[in-house]
Amino acid sequence: MISFRDVRQVFRLSGKGDGSAARNRELVALQDVNVDIQAGQFVALVGASGCGKTTMLNMLAGLVEPTHGEVLLDGRAPRLPNMDIGYMFARDALLPWRTARKNVELPLETRGWGRKERRERAEEMLELVGLKGRESQYRLQLSQGMRQRVALARTLAPDPSLLLMDEPFAALDARTKLTLQAEFLRIWENNQNGDRRKTVIFVTHDLQEAVLLADRVIVMLPHPGRIAEDRVIDLPRPRAELLGELQFTKEFQDITHGLFERLEGAIGDRGADAAKQGETTTP
């Protein structure tokens, strides 16, 4: 379903100073990225800030075109608008003048759904994420966890086949985060048949979250953004009801530790290379 082929992304930055070199600096966000993702997989991109995770999501959404190489979605370059993609952010981005139900209805309005169908679908999705009875409440009347539930319902409402999720649970406290992780995983795992099978690209800084949720973890390094490790997570499914216990198992800890060592080792190698060249590198 998804292919990144020899992808390199360069952003030109404008800065102060004399001369063209000072005014036009370049930032290499991605370098030599090659990866294929099958339809229906849950793939986590994990790494430090600046390693190009969000840039990859934006490429799939059609918001950014690669400087070099190609990104393919079902064999074609992504283009806007694509109504078969759902994009969920770290912040809820709810419209404060709309109720929870009206926020969930928003993507359905843009797709031309009728009023009755929009209302029924929004109420169905709010019930699915545990917010039945909260339909008429506004953003300020909801806790942060509830807002993210509304955002999740809004993302899922039009039934997209591809979900792009940019640290959707990062701003939550530990208990609420675990609850939302389990809630989302339950929804995803319960819809794995036929046309309802969804592909998930999940960005996170949290290595444990990546291993806990995903079928496959891609570890990325910054400066420039590149892939250090691409590993299949051999943990049983369904997991939604077992997240609290799973993270304390030896299998989970071994996988997480192995990926952490790979990440730390790659950063160390990068620092050694920079030292040889007389450079200063900040991981």
UniProtKB/TrEMBL annotation:
InterPro entries linked to this entry: AAA+_ATPase, ABC_transporter-like_ATP-bd, ABC_transporter-like_CS, ABC_transporter_ATP-bind, P-loop_NTPase
Keywords: ATP-binding, Nucleotide-binding, Transport
Gene3D superfamilies, A to Z: P-loop containing nucleotide triphosphate hydrolases
Keyword Glycoprotein on entry: no
SUPFAM superfamilies per record: P-loop containing nucleoside triphosphate hydrolases
Segment forming the signal sequence: none
Domain of life: Bacteria
Location of the ABC transporter domain: 2-247
Coiled coil: none
Pfam families the record matches: ABC_tran (PF00005)
GO MF assignments: ATP binding; ATP hydrolysis activity
Protein name, entry field: ABC transporter ATP-binding protein
Naturally occurring in which organism (per UniProt): Thermobifida cellulosilytica TB100
